[in-house]
Design brief:
The complex is a heterodimer of chains A (441) and B (258). Chain A is α+β, with helices and mostly antiparallel strands and 441 residues long. Chain A has helices spanning 33-37, 92-99, 117-122, 130-133, 160-165, 200-213, 268-284, 293-297, 324-341, 380-395, 410-416, 420-424, 434-439, and strands spanning 6-8, 22-25, 45-48, 64-67, 74-77, 83-87, 104-105, 140-146, 152-155, 175-181, 183-184, 189-197, 216-221, 233-240, 255-256, 289-292, 303-304, 315-322, 348-353, 368-376, 399-400. Chain B has ten helices and nine strands. Chain B has helices spanning 2-7, 23-34, 46-58, 78-89, 105-110, 112-140, 161-181, 214-224, 237-247, 250-253, and strands at 14-18, 38-43, 63-68, 94-97, 144-148, 187-193, 195-196, 211-212, 231-234. In chain B, helix 7 links the parallel strand 5 and strand 6 (187-193). Classes of the chains: A alpha+beta (441), B alpha/beta (258).
């Protein structure tokens, strides 16, 4: 029995800018997939997961999507070697519930655990330990890919279709299962330390020093301040602690944003105040401290649906990476433009990527410094600000993260991803997304 | 190896799941797996049972066995199967009856075969499995039966009285079993879920405060195996809702379309 495609108006990406209608299939067993993707229906389909991508890479308006989250079964987990094989719809959160008590952790994790394994592969996600572990794709040992022509492929590193699928935005075919190598942890606790910097120019030296000593690093910065305090912030660095037990996180978020926030909730003043308070709190925490991984790695997962804070019109996220030679000047220039725009960002994150060779043809991480921040959707004003930022990123030789993007131009996409032409060959003709039609069409 | 694994199972955690491939059953079975339980999974599709068994083993279940069968067709052999599963598990502590068939009232009214299927699946076969489990628990003076009924069984309504009557009948049967087991220390519980977001309800308009996730109901089933009264609503707020629904007088109720 095959689950049918049902009409739904509730499919949205994390940024919630696009409201569109989809026909949705929700398979519960892997044997339903083949019939779904080869279904004789109009238009291309798109496999989707927990929809944490911000823009439109996980949308296929007026078309079909296959919600993979029902395919969440473990196939094998070797507690001795840390090799885990699971269906692509398993969330990282669920994977951790099983990994952590056995003394293992995800090889790397994005800032939310509500991401599927398939999504982690399709966006080749990165985390605070990129400088040490590389992107998620670097730890994938095998995966099974289905194609809409009915074929199935078990792929491993070295296979060209494997490298197209890592970071391939779900366009090379639905991923049935993923096998990856987990990382040993001595406890579920991290030994962490915060270091404050009063200007973004100081970030780079502090970060370089932290990378040599710590597996996890990232910096929060305040985008509302300019001048002598441009990009002031706090760098957090941590290593797994040898002390503590192997207790995983609580599965359910404690708090939720039940409805869309009214428009004034995130005005410049309130965001500035939020960032200031946050800054003071961080400043007071001097010296090393021990923390469970959950608040350190997943600070926002404590609040379900925090994206609703941005109100009914939604928001954009802007994430770029600039290569080492241009990163210092480029990041400063970006922050100046953002501070001057008054379109303050709720959260801004600064992080250095290591020099790992990219695993996927469209992998976002490359050596350099990545800056990520949110902009509430104010229409043309916001789009024009981001276009200004694009010009800085382009001239610095940087690129933007497709998982975060909802408005990039084809030229900007092509300039950032030199292997885009190689990738096109591997796109399944039966699949597409709003992002793909807009940015690569 | 299986014998070795079952030796490590706690004596209170040997479980049979009837209708193991439903979304609610999978949620409940995963809670047992995390506790290191031993399980027999029963449903029709062997391939899917194998996939679920692998999942539960990887999540920590000490032993997972499968039995592929049509639970309606096999109901007359329920006592023999139940004894066999108890033997395979090295004992029997909990039996969860979760399978059922929703169908539609329109088809049930038009087709004797459809009406028979709804009645057989949700009532006639179900009570055979319940009685077989209860007989074992009665003899051993321990164990719990947890059967899934539905809030639809609390009042006959024009939109689903075939399903509702069968589930309501099952609820009465299990209530009676609870009474009969009470002196022995064994338990029987009927759980009545409201709207649950599962493949069974695909096609209905979902979302809002009255809809529960399979995980929510799965947690209630797992807990019901250990404690609580003989009739449990899932989630609990349905007890109040159904009390109100039951008390609406017919001359008012008959003007509604529910």
């Amino acid at each position: 029995m095959t689950a049918p495609f049902l009409q739904s108006d509730t499919i949205a990406s994390w940024g919630r800018v696009v409201r569109a209608s989809h026909r949705v299939a929700r398979p519960r067993f892997a044997d339903e997939l083949a019939a779904l993707i080869t279904a004789d229906e109009d238009g291309p389909a798109l496999p989707i997961g927990l929809r944490r991508s911000y823009g439109d890479s996980n949308l296929n308006p007026d078309g079909r999507v296959i919600d993979m989250t029902g395919l969440d079964r473990l196939i094998a987990f070797d507690r001795e070697t840390g090799i885990m094989q699971a269906e692509a719809g398993l969330s990282l959160s669920q994977a951790l519930q099983i990994l952590v008590p056995a003394g293992w952790f995800l090889p790397t994790t994005p800032g939310t655990r509500f991401v599927t394994l398939g999504g982690a592969v399709a966006n080749d996600v990165h985390g605070k330990n990129h400088h040490s572990a590389g992107s998620f794709g670097a730890s994938v040992t095998r995966l099974r890919l289905l194609r809409t022509d009915g074929s199935a492929h078990e792929l491993a590193p070295g296979d060209p279709l494997f490298h197209a699928t890592i970071g391939g935005l779900g366009l090379t075919g639905p991923i049935e299962w993923v096998e990856f190598r987990a990382t040993r942890i001595p406890s579920a606790q991290l030994d962490a330390q915060d270091t404050e910097f009063t200007h973004v120019r100081d970030y780079f030296d502090i970060a370089a020093e932290a990378h040599a000593l710590c597996e996890h690093t990232m910096a929060w910065i305040d985008c509302t301040s300019g001048g002598a305090r441009l990009g002031r912030g706090v760098l957090s660095a941590a290593n797994w602690s040898p002390h503590g037990d192997l207790q995983p996180h609580r599965e359910e978020p404690k708090r939720a944003i039940p409805v869309d926030a009214p428009g004034f909730a995130l005005s410049r003043l309130t965001v500035g105040a939020f960032n200031s308070v946050f800054h003071e709190l961080k400043r007071m925490r001097t010296g090393p401290f021990r923390t469970h991984y959950e608040p350190f790695l997943y600070p926002l997962d404590k609040i379900a649906n925090w994206n609703r804070l941005y109100g009914r019109d939604g928001f954009y996220q802007y994430q770029c990476v600039l290569p080492p030679p241009t990163a210092r000047a480029g990041v400063e220039e970006l922050l100046k433009v953002i501070a001057a725009s008054g379109q303050a960002s709720f959260l801004a994150v600064l992080k250095d990527f290591g020099a790992h060779a990219p695993v996927g043809l469209l992998s976002f991480p490359m050596e350099g410094t990545t800056l990520a921040l949110d902009f509430r959707n104010l229409g043309d004003r916001t789009l024009s600000l981001m276009a200004d930022l694009d010009r800085i990123v382009l001239s610095a030789g940087g690129r933007l993260y497709p998982a975060k993007d909802g408005r990039i131009s084809p030229a900007m996409f092509a300039a950032g991803f030199p292997k885009l032409q190689d990738f096109r060959v591997y796109v399944d003709p039966g699949l597409s997304s709003a992002f793909w039609r807009r940015a690569a069409g | 190896m299986q014998a070795q694994a079952s030796a490590t199972v706690k004596a209170s955690n040997r479980v049979v799941v009837l209708g193991a491939l439903s979304a609610i059953a999978i949620s409940a079975a995963r809670l047992y797996a995390k506790e290191g339980a031993a399980l027999v999974l029963v449903a029709r599709n062997q391939q899917r049972l194998d996939a679920l068994a692998a999942d539960l083993r990887a999540r920590g279940a000490a032993l997972v066995e499968t039995a592929a069968m049509d639970l309606e067709a096999e109901a007359m052999n329920a006592p023999e199967h139940m004894v066999d599963w108890k033997r395979r598990l090295g004992g029997l502590d909990h039996v969860h009856l979760i399978y059922g068939y929703l169908g539609t009232q329109a088809q049930a009214s038009a087709s004797t075969a459809e009406l028979a299927r709804i009645t057989a699946s949700n009532y006639a076969s179900a009570v055979q499995w319940c009685e077989a489990a209860a007989n074992i628990f009665r003899t051993q003076k321990s164990g719990s039966l947890v059967a899934v009924s539905s809030v639809a069984g609390d009042r006959g309504r024009q939109s689903n009285y075939a399903y509702g009557a069968a589930k309501g009948g099952l609820a009465l049967y299990v209530q009676g079993l609870a009474h009969s087991l009470a002196p022995t220390g064994a338990r029987a519980v009927v759980v009545k879920p409201g709207f649950v977001d599962t493949p069974m309800t695909d096609g209905m308009k979902k979302g809002g405060p009255m809809w529960a996730s399979p995980d929510q109901v799965g947690r209630i089933l797992r807990r019901a195996a250990d404690k609580g009264g003989p009739i449990q609503y899932a989630p609990g707020k349905w007890r109040l809702v159904m009390m109100i629904v039951r008390s609406v007088p017919a001359f008012v109720f008959h003007k509604t379309k529910v």
